[in-house]
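Hey, quick one: can you model this chain's 3D structure?
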Amino acid sequence: MKHIPFILIYYWSFFIISACSNSHSNTIEKSMEYPKIFPDYTFVTIPANIAPLNFRVEKANNIKVEFTTLNGTPLLTVSGGKRLNIPEKKWKQLMNNQIGNTLCVTVSIWSPQYPQGIIYKPFEINISNDLIDPYIVYRLIDPGYEPWNHMGIYQRELSSFKEKTIVDNHKNTLKCFNCHSSCKNSSDMFLFHERGKEGGTIIVKNGIVQKIDLSKMGKHQHGVYPAWHPNGRWILFSSNMTLQSFYNRGKKAIEVYDSSSDLLLYDSEKQQVLTDTRFNQSNNWETFPTWSPDGKTLYFCSATPEENIPVKCTNVKYAILCVNFSADDGTFGQQIDTLYNPKKRHGSASHPRVSADGRYLLYSEAAYGTFPIWHSEADLKIIDLKENKELNTNILNSPEAESFHSWSSNGRWILFTSRRMDGRHTRLYIAHFSKNGQIGKPFLLPQKNPEDNWTRIQSYNVPDFVKGEIKFKYNY
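Sure thing. Here's the predicted structure for all 476 residues.
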C-alpha cells in the first residue's frame, strides 16, 4: 500500500508525457481527473471555422489553459479570471494552422481550495477537415404558452459571436414570425410565416420580397411547416390545425397536438396551389414535409386520426412515408413507401431531414404525438437509407427532449435543439457526422460569455444552416 502514491504520480506523469508531453513544475497539485468545464468541450470534434470555445471551470478564481500538439509542442496559452476568454484572432490562427489535427488541452486553476494551483488531466479536441456552414438561422421565443410579446428570427455567424436580427416583433407585438425555411441552405432564397393582422407567407428570392396568402388559394388552407424544393420552384407546405392542452397533474405541463393536417404544393412560378387528394383527406394527418437533395422524393409524416383528442392523444403516432415527385409538372408517384412504422417501433416520428448525399434520414422520435419539444423522452434517430438500418445515436441524446434539427450543406454536421441543460429551455448543439456514419460528441453552441447559456431565458427554435448572411428589407 505504501507504493500506491508513487505509482499514481508516475502514471499521471507518464500520461502527460505520452499524451501531451508537457511540464508544469510551478503547480503543486496534479489531478487524475479531467477538469469540470462548462460548456463541456472535452473530447469533441469541431470545425476549423467555429468561434472560440470559451468556458468556465467550477469554483475557479483564475484559469490557465495551454493548447499543445499531442507530442507537447506549445501552440497557444490563454489565462483568465473565472472564465476563459480566448482572443478571436489567435483562435482563428490556431484553427487554420491545426486543421485536421488533434489539440491537447491542459487546464490549471487557482481557487480558495487550491491557492497554489492545480493542474488537471489533459483532454483532446479534434479539429475536423470538414468545414461548417458560416451561418445558422433560428427563432428565439420567450418562456410561456400563449403570448408572443418578444420573438424573432435571427442569424448567427458561427466563426464569431455575431448575432443579427432578420425579423422581430418589436414594432408590432401582435405579430408572430415562425416556420422559416431556405432553399438548399441558400441565403438568397428564404421564407417565413407572418401571423396576425394582414399576415401571410413572406418569400424572398434574390432580394425580391413577396407576400402570399395561401388561405385564399385552393381549399382555403394556411401553410405551416414548409419544405422548399431544391429547384426553387416548388414549396411543399403542411396545413395544420394545431391546438394545445394543459395537464392538471404530473410532471408534464402541456400537450401540443394537431386536430387535422394536410399537404399542399405551391408553385412559385405560377403562384398557385396544387393538391393531391391522397394527402388532403380526413382519414390521415400528413405533416413535416421534406425533400431529398435531388428533389425526386418527398418524405413526410403521417398518422391515423384519433377522434377523442386530446384525451386519447397518446394513441396518435406518426409514421415516416416517402413518395416520388416529378419536378416538371408537380405530380407525385402512385406508390407510397413506409420508412418508419410506429406499430413496429412503438413510437412516433417527426421532423424528418435527409443528409446532403441522400443516404441518411435524421428524425425525432417520441412516445406519441407530433410535438417532441414537450416530450422529455424524445430522442434523435437516424436511418441509413442505403443499408435500411438504424444507426446508434445514443451519443446525441439525453434524458431531456431533443427535437428540431438540421444537416449542414455538406452533410458533415448536425445542428439540433436540446433541453438537457435544465429541462425547460432549448439550447443549440452541434455534432460531427463522418462520411462512414460515425457521430461525434455534441457540443454546445459557443458563446463569448459561457454564462449566456444560462442567463438567456429565450429558447432556440427551428435551427437551420445557411451558406451566407441573409439580407433583405421588409417593412412589417
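One thing worth noting: The chain has four helices and 33 strands.
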